[in-house]
Structure formats: structure tokens, C-alpha cells
């Protein structure tokens, strides 16, 4: 709809490294490394499952999940699952799949689910004038057994409150506190990133809540889509987002 003219940052690794410098933000980031044979071995010793993502990826493209169950490895893509009995087979397969692309390897977070459908969240901040403003938060309900919740992978919008109520069964006040926690963290992230990249105007921040109710930062998108918010029952949110977008584009 609009051609983006403001500053953006593609590399997930660059953004992660920058955000890791802030101690508060770092406590929300699942352990992340660049994928090498060595980091793979190390991460497999530490975590029961891992996510592998292309450094320049988006919309869930090129993402793999690797589970280790007893002595068997299970590699999931959006299309298939394959089991391996030894690690050399896994690394051989990963080499073919990742080719020469730079990949990140990340501690897996056990997402809350609703009838087998994984849920995570997208919070949107925009900077129509000189200040970052909170524009909304939305749950992303992935397809059953899907390894991602992206809209492009069949994900659907679900209100934040409904998502938390249906999965963790938190009270009204607890849900509000959780949302406030994500909002505070998001403004901190915005400040950190704008310090290095002053031309940023929108941030679509992906959060996961694990089955114990702990929040995790999955990634920060600097050219976020808005369509997900169109799927919310509260139409005001999408209208506000579009109003801000118009201001941003009249200014850049
Ligand atoms: N560490 C992780 N643990 C659990 N799920 C993850 C993890 N990383 C990514 N995912 C799932 O994959 C989706 C896409 O990952 P993300 O890092 O946002 O990449 P993309 O840029 O392709 O959207 C997330 O929204 C989430 O559903
Ligand atoms: Mg994402």
C-alpha cells in the first residue's frame, strides 16, 4: 500500500546483539547464537528443542525447529518432519537446507497453545511525531502443530486477553499486568534501537509467553505489517494504526 521510506534493519543478529547490551532486555531474550557445528552441539546440550532462523528471514520463511527426544532428533520445517538417529545426519541435512546462508540458533520457547494451535504475540509501536506511541497488541494463533504463527503461515488474529484467558487462565488484573510488562519492555527496546538507528518509525515486536507464563522476546521487526490488526474485533486499533501510518508517510 505504502512504499517504505524510513530506516529499517534487516539482520536479526545485528538487532539481537544490540538489544543484548541492555541487561533488562537481555533477560527476555532466549539464548541466541550464530549457527555453527559447535554452537549446535552446545545448544543441544542445554535445551530440549531449538529454533533455527535465517538472519535475513521474515514471514516464517526458512525456519526449522530441532527437537531432541531421548536419542532421536526431529527436524521440523513448515512442510515436513524427519527423524535422525545421529547428529552427523542432522548436520548434513542442515548444511543442505541452509546452504551458505547465515543462520541463528535459538533456545526454543514452549509456546502456550489452544487445541494444539500455538499462540504468540505482536505488539506494535509507531513514531508518528517525535515520540514512540503504543498502537496495539494482538495474539497470533498458528495452525495446529505449526512451528510458526506468522500470518503468511496460516496464523490468525486473536485478542490478547482472550489468548491469555483461554490458555493460562489468568485473572483480569494479571492479564493487564502482563500487557503492561510487554508495553514497558517495548518502549525500552524502542529507546535502545533508536539510539543506534534514529530513523526507525515503526516496530513490530514479537513476544512469546511460555506455558509457565513467562514472557520472551522473539524478534523485533522494523517494517512490520498491519494486516493482522485488521482481524481484531476492536476496529479502533486498526484505524489508529492507519492514521499513524499516514502521518509517518507524509513526513518521510
Ligand atoms: N525461540 C523460539 N521458540 C519458539 N517459537 C519460536 C522461536 N523463534 C521463533 N518461533 C516461532 O516462529 C515464528 C517466526 O519466528 P520469527 O523469529 O518471528 O521470524 P520471522 O522473521 O520469520 O517472523 C514466531 O512468531 C514463533 O511462532
Ligand atoms: Mg516474526
Briefly say what this structure is.
The protein has eight helices and twelve strands. It is of the alpha+beta class and 252 residues long.
Shape: globular
* Tally of helical runs: 8
What's the level 1 CATH class of the largest domain?
A: Alpha Beta
Q: What's the CATH topology label of the largest domain?
A: D-amino Acid Aminotransferase, Chain A, domain 1
Range of helix content = 25-40%
Widest sheet, order of strands: 1-6-2-3-4-5
- Which range does the strand content fall in? 25-35%
Please write the string of helix (H) and strand (E) elements: HHEHEEEEHEEEEEHHEEHH
- Bound ions, cofactors and other small molecules, one mention each: adenosine-5'-diphosphate, magnesium ion
Task: Point out poorly predicted stretches.
Answer: none
Number of strands: 12
Q: Gyration radius, to the nearest Å?
A: 18 Å
The major β-sheet equals:
6 strands, antiparallel
Amino acid at each position: 500500500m505504502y512504499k517504505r521510506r524510513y530506516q529499517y534493519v534487516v539482520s536479526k543478529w545485528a538487532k539481537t546483539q544490540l538489544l543484548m547490551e541492555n541487561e533488562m532486555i537481555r533477560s527476555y531474550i532466549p539464548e541466541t547464537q550464530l549457527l555453527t557445528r559447535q554452537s549446535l552441539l552446545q545448544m543441544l546440550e542445554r535445551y530440549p528443542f531449538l529454533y533455527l532462523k535465517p538472519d535475513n528471514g521474515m514471514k516464517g520463511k526458512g525456519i526449522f525447529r530441532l527437537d531432541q527426544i531421548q536419542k532421536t532428533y526431529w527436524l521440523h520445517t513448515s512442510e515436513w518432519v524427519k527423524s535422525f538417529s545421529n547428529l552427523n545426519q542432522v548436520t548434513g541435512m542442515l548444511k543442505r537446507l541452509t546452504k551458505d546462508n547465515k543462520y541463528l540458533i535459538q533456545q526454543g520457547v514452549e509456546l502456550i497453545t489452544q487445541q494444539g494451535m500455538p499462540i504468540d504475540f505482536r505488539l506494535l509501536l509507531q513514531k508518528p511525531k517525535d515520540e514512540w506511541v503504543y498502537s496495539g497488541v494482538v495474539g497470533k494463533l498458528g495452525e495446529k502443530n505449526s512451528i510458526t504463527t506468522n500470518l503468511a503461515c496460516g496464523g490468525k488474529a486473536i485478542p490478547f486477553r482472550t489468548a491469555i484467558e483461554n490458555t493460562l487462565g489468568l485473572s483480569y488484573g494479571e492479564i493487564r499486568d502482563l500487557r503492561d510488562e510487554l508495553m514497558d519492555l517495548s518502549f525500552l527496546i524502542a529507546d535502545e534501537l533508536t539510539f543506534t538507528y534514529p530513523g526507525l518509525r515503526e516496530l513490530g515486536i514479537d513476544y512469546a509467553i511460555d506455558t509457565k507464563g513467562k514472557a520472551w522476546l522473539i524478534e523485533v521487526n522494523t517494517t512490520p505489517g498491519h494486516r493482522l490488526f485488521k482481524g481484531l474485533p476492536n476496529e479502533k486499533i486498526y484505524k489508529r494504526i492507519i492514521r499513524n501510518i499516514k502521518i509517518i508517510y507524509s513526513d518521510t
